[in-house]
Amino acid sequence: MGTAGAVKNVERFLDDSFIVFNGDVFTDIDLSVMMRLHRKNKAIASLALTPVDDPTIYGVVERDSQGRVKRFIEKPSRDKVTTNMINAGIYILEPDILSYIAPNAFSMFEHDVFPPLLERGQAIYGYPFQDYWIDVGTPDKYLRLQHDLLRRYVGNNGIKFEGESFVHSSAQIEGPAVIGEACFIDRDSIMRGPAVLGTRCRVEEGAVIEGVVLWQDCKIGKGAKLRNCLVASRCRIGEESEILDGCILGDDVLIGRGSKLSNGIKIWPGKTIEPGTVSS
Fold it and tell me: How many whole angstroms separate alpha carbon 61 and alpha carbon 21?
């Protein structure tokens, strides 16, 4: 239904100012401050704006000196960039805005609602903020978020156990790290944070995992090395294998002994990688 069409579906429940988040946004924005400004400006819509290094891959929002939105520019070329403030996918809206959205039709706030409102002279304001914000709609950004959250909530050297697990006395664990319930970490293995072991994960003798997020029921074979990668549920990593630097494994992937994967290789769920495979 699109960002606006989906909200239109719940119109009957909305009778006051309401907040809309894009589903792939993680942030600690102060919504109370944003709401106060929204009401002070008597806006029909207020858009949270966040600065980014490269605005060419986003939709930028131009404002006047009072903070009122002048225009939207979707994915501008570098020579057309006038601001690095982008639409953060967080809106405070008035119920009246729903009358501009067609029922039972695909509709996007960014293309089908906000620009026509500007043409009609409606008051749309931008709210710039510097708080943490990330669009986690891709696996690499999901992994980055996990690392950020570990540093924030566990601490740079913190280690959190979420239940009983076995850790051999010779194993090394360096935070920040979270270890789920019923994990097994064998002798001489190394876990370097930021890293996560989901429930019932098994790290065999001499394996090294660094900057890795493992979901549940994964097995890391003897002497395997994993670095800065995301491994979904029930994966099996063969002995002496290497999974490095941005690789993504879907559920139920089997990596054969001695395989070497690197540079963001993505493996579909259920796929088997033959022993000794090298791919970058």
Answer: 17
Tell which residue, 173, 169, 225, 223, has the closest CA to residue 197: 173
SS3 86: strand
Q: Work out the mean pLDDT of the chain and round it to a whole number.
A: 93
CA torsion sign for 237, 238, 239, 242 is negative
CATH class for the domain made up of 139-279: mainly beta
Query: How, if at all, do strands 85-93 and 45-51 pair?
Result: antiparallel
Can you tell me the distance from the alpha carbon of 136 to that of 21, in angstroms, rounded to the nearest whole number? Answer: 13
Q: Measured over all CA atoms, what is the biggest interatomic distance in the chain, rounded to whole angstroms? A: 69
**How many helices (H) and strands (E) are present in the chain, helices listed first?**
4, 29
Pick the CATH number of 2-135 from 3.90.550.10, 3.10.450.50, 1.10.357.10, 3.40.50.300: 3.90.550.10
Predicted TM-score (pTM) of this structure: 0.83
Paired with 278 in beta bridges are 260
